[in-house]
Amino acid sequence: MGIHKTFLIFGLAAVTFAQDITAKADEFVSAFVKQNKFSGTVLIAKEGKVVFDKAYGMANYEWSIPNTTDTKFRLGSVTKQFGAAAILKLEEMGKLKTTDKACDYLPDCPENWKPIIIHHLLTHTSGIPNFTALKDYGQLKLLPSKYDEQYKAVRDLKMDFDPGTKFQYSNTGYILLGQIIEKASGKPWEVFLDEQIFVPAGMTNTRADNNLVLLPKRASGYRANGGAPTNASYIDMRIPSVAGALISTTGDLYKWDRALASGKILTESSRTKMWTPEKDNYAYGWGIAKQNGKTEQSHGGGIDGFSTFILRVPEDGVLIVVLSNFEDGKTGDVRRGLTDIAYGRPIEVPKERTEIQLDSATIEDYPGTYQLSPDFALVITRQGNQLITQATGQGKMPIFAEAKDTFFPKVMPATIVFTRENGKVSGLILKQGGREMPAPKKP
């Protein structure tokens, strides 16, 4: 229910939209497909109109049934924005306020939850532990529970922090929001969303997933594992609830984008509230960022067998949707590339890369600290014959040799080329997103 790694995010000057979006986007996504790194559907809209919408890979690999543009995918945490919209709709209807105490709507509420308001749940600032991060989650996700097991797993745990003081992503908060929607509306959360959001927006292919119901054109979920797909592990789709249980299509998410833009679903004041960021730039079911001087509204999702991403740039009517039935599909990389293509920025089309083995003496040349900027460095260490990189403030990432002095990570499109002086490694060049960034090696 999803976060993707990257080395750096660089601002680039805004440029006019590319005129050859279709050809570039197809070439870019097809490169991931050829490397067994993506299966799914993608959509690009600009100025509010669809300019690219195409399917890749298989909806079912055992039967060789291709994905189509109306294939349904599990959304994972992209679901959260719909739960947030439902809460705001209930507020418009006078049935609750986002400043209400959450415990007013929750059964058997523990004492340490009493200070939590609905706003805290929406913005991941409640301090309630995330049930999907618990060590027993692997067993929990198999249970046919809409709320009870998730609730029981966390209600007696110590709070991670005082409500409102920090940001910590918590699927538990959105599970509780599902209960609040039901208490305030008097209806199951999925029925309320259908009546108040999906039907008015014309979203006929969006609903809560259900393992038992036969759903036409629903994709099967897989793990790519860097090679032949394997079936994803099982999750009872009652478990994720408002945190991640919806399925949808690129076309329906385009309709959602247009309904948001037109005010068909929510009033202007509700939309302003939904997109006003709290801590760590998270608002109500959306992450908010400034890129190239423009506001981006986005959210990723990851759930067993699926990975997803939606990004809006309201100022330009830009929408990027990436839906994949590969749990480990390169959804974030695909989204970044498609965004750059939509804006005419340079991209690096991923190419098939072959790992080679270097001798131990050569491997020993590379460890060290490489300074990309005064406050940002890549630290390269060695574990046996494996090189590991760690960027400032980020996690560790292995890199692999494709030639002497040339390495690549398998989790994202980038290249590291080590430079030498008098035969000794003196620095590196990080090639990513159409840019080349030199970094001298610290003595």
- Helix count, DSSP H or I runs of 4 or more residues: 12
Mean pLDDT over the residues: 92
Distance between the termini: 42 Å
The biggest beta sheet is recorded as: 8 strands, antiparallel
- Tally of strands: 21
Strand content: 25-35%
Placed side by side, the strands forming the largest sheet appear as 14-15-16-17-18-19-20-21
Low-confidence stretches are 2-18
Inertia-based shape: globular
Radius of gyration: 23 Å
Structural class: alpha+beta
Percent of residues in helical segments?
25-40%
Overview of the molecule:
The protein is α+β, with helices and mostly antiparallel strands and 443 residues long. Helix content is 25%, strand content 26%. It is built from 12 helices and 21 strands. It has helices spanning 21-34, 80-92, 118-122, 137-140, 148-154, 171-185, 189-201, 241-244, 250-262, 268-274, 331-342, 360-363, and strands spanning 40-46, 49-56, 58-60, 65-66, 73-74, 207-208, 222-223, 230-231, 246-248, 287-291, 294-303, 306-313, 318-324, 368-373, 376-383, 386-391, 396-403, 406-408, 415-421, 424-432, 435-440. Strands 14-15-16-17-18-19-20-21 form an 8-stranded antiparallel sheet, with no helix packed on it. A 6-stranded antiparallel sheet has the order 2-1-13-12-11-10, with helices on both faces. It has a 3-stranded antiparallel sheet with strand order 5-9-6. The longest helix has 15 residues, at 171-185. The chain is globular. The relative contact order is 0.17.
